[in-house]
Amino acid sequence: MSRLPENFLWGGAVAANQLEGAWNVDGKGISTADCMSAGAVDKERIYTDGIQEGVYYPNHEGIDFYHHYQEDIAMFAEMGFKCFRTSIAWTRIFPQGDEKEPNELGLQFYDRVFDECLKYGIEPVVTISHYETPYGLVKKYGSWRSRSMIDFYTRFCEVIFNRYKDKVKYWMTFNEINCISLHPAIPTGIRIGTDENFHQVTLQAAHHMFVASAKAVKLGHAINPDFKIGMMMLYPQTYAETCNPLDALKQMQAMDMQYYYSDVQVRGYYSSKAKKMQQALGVKLAAEPEDDAILREGKVDYIGFSYYMSMVASADLNKQVSGGNMLKGIKNPYLKASEWGWQIDPVGLRLTLNNLYDRYQLPLFIVENGLGAIDQIEADGSICDDYRIEYLREHIKEMIKAVDEDGVELMGYTPWGCIDLISAGTGEMKKRYGFIYVDRDDEGHGTLARSKKKSFEWYKQVIASNGEKL
């Protein structure tokens, strides 16, 4: 007998801008992700000034899911996917972001994708805004700095909610919304000047996103009461380095900055601690009188989150820092790390599930989890990614314990990058997550041919057994 619910949503997760390609096809406009060149984040590769001549932009072709979606979804179905988490590219629907009428060819593409999923009994799980903002809105309005973005976003939501109301049940308003406080250029295209208060800009932008999310939730429920509309956050499980109370205080403060984002979307208001945090950071939010009611009436139905690694907080500022996934913390001597320095912590996933469920008592959805690694193709064409299987197996074990032993209400599990795609953080292709290998390298060379890794068959049996065969 399975320890997970019978209707548990096993699947995989991707983002439109990291795999679709076809960046300027069928009327699609330029998004901030289209202005992200190859290379590391610290090389200021993001949104310099639109598209530059002679610069390589990996996502312009991605893995060409736009023309391979039938083949790819068939492979997902072969693995037994119950759901497929993807996103809708905003600029396929509103190329500049502020048009009055949507682009019909863009809408038709997602009709085809969702129909293909439903043909195999795969539920689409759709992130409305996943790390791509119409570049026209960045240039014209300053992105989410401007309150005008709320109307543009809700118009986008109204169109896709009505168009896909009978095809999509599960939605999330923003991907990793708390990442605006970590690297605002990636989720929103916002660049912050050295003469600006970083927190004033990011928390004001976040307020506009909170209001937009709440309006979208209310709108979605009016269009289809069966919609399940969630929020989505990056969850950085953080430990105090020692039992020194000052370390514990640092740990609490680190997590408070992340809960700031989930608290508003789940509870529908800013807590007294959140308001004190704003004061301490010199932030004065510009808000409209109706915002309190909007936030209250637009609380989310569930919490989606990404979990890859854990962090350590210390009051000792001289400690060696370890980075990963836009985060920085002290190295944990009890954990191994990935090739990219991400500290691997399966038990941290169980703690994460408990922390979120105890705090909010809302259904949870693990919508990203996985191991980025360099995969080697053997002479016979096989790819033996035992390291990925081990990572996922250990995390699934802890996930099941959280449900079976701790009573956490969990909707599903969609490992990140179920098919190899472009890295959001670095633009690399060699940092692979998928069960399906795509023949493409960091320079954009390759046939784009798809092939199964060892983890493909392993995950297939995991799904078939509802997590009992690991």
TrEMBL record:
GO terms for biological process: carbohydrate catabolic process. It holds the Pfam family Glyco_hydro_1. It comes from the Bacteria. GO terms for cellular component: cytosol. The keyword Cell inner membrane does not apply. Coiled coil: none annotated. InterPro entries: GH (IPR017853), GH_1_N_CS (IPR033132), Glyco_hydro_1 (IPR001360), Glyco_hydro_1_AS (IPR018120). Keywords: Glycosidase, Hydrolase. Belongs to the glycosyl hydrolase 1 family. NCBIfam families: PRK09589.1, PRK09593.1. This is 6-phospho-beta-glucosidase. It comes from Dielma fastidiosa.
